[in-house]
Fold:
Amino acid sequence: MRKDFDPMSYLPGMEEINSDILPQVTALLRKFAPERYTGSDVRAALSASSRGEHDFAALLSPAAEPFIEEMANAARIETRRWFGNSVSLYTPLYIANHCENHCSYCGFSCHHTIKREKLSLGQIRREAESIAATGLEEVLVLTGECRSASSVEYIGEAISLLKDYFGVIGIEIYPLNVEEYRHLQQCGADYVSIYQETYDLALYEQLHLSGPKRSYPYRFYSHERALQGGMRGISFGALLGLGDFRRDCFAAGLHAWFTQKKYPSGEIAFSFPRIRPVQGIDQKSGVSERNLLQAMLAFRLFLPFAGITVSTRERPGFRDAAVNLAATKMSAGVSVGVGGHSEKQKGDPQFMIADERSVAEIRQALTNNGLQPVFLDYIRL
Structure:
């Protein structure tokens, strides 16, 4: 695999679709200057009955920092309006960690010497039985980004098996073409989570040194291809701390906003992962909890109907506070290594988590907070 191919190009086999969302996002991101917004802009955004990109930008700006409490109150109202007091629970299930990308920040990078594993269908079944025994009815299936080790066929077989145990199945894998997404949807997948990592093209090129992930537009348009392939929902996000978090959050919000306009029946969600230490790299995000909270609140006020997931990368206290204000989904009983639910992890983890609570512990914490833990919010007919 060439290390120096243009990150705006496509490799052979990568499907190009007809879309103008990337240039729209790029044009608005180019104009975005967070320091230009004032307290008056923030007040206007908070009082608006509906909010556009200018309001979203103001809420993400440094000028909004003194208004966090007001943003929190407004966000809580929107969250309760659209989602009531419910919080959906799920757990990730890593079935493989092989990767062919060289990404400088990731624990699965092909240049890292880690224990690589891939679960057999029998092992996946045992993982499913163990997870289902906790009461969870939703899983997110993850692999490293390596087609040769984790083929579409293999992932489809895993999803078909998991469909016997879970009512909702998400996937977080390498980007696919439309018909490949259609195949996995027919196997039983409901939604796709894929993150651009950073929307700063120059930084993206520096961080993604080789591998298919170096193609910026192919990754960017994964959400559209997933919806065209029949997926019910898609999740957006950036890995906060790689670049300027305000600019990355602004771009991710626009990406989802334009996609929702184009595909109004698609369910939209966000995740807010901050960069964490990984094996061999003691990296810190530079994004504070207050920064993270501001971003989550701004998203809730800009796209009030969208789901928001708070990651186990965050400490328990922050996660519990986030679901009281803006987040509507959280993981529980998490393992970020291959396997780890039915027995000891078989492959090394992708990153270090900060919330190791079990499903029962998180369920109790939500109940104590007056919230309703939801194990299934969708019935497949």
The mean pLDDT is 93. The first strand starts at residue 86 and ends at 94. The chain has one domain: 21-374. The CA atoms of residues 8 and 261 lie 24 Å apart.
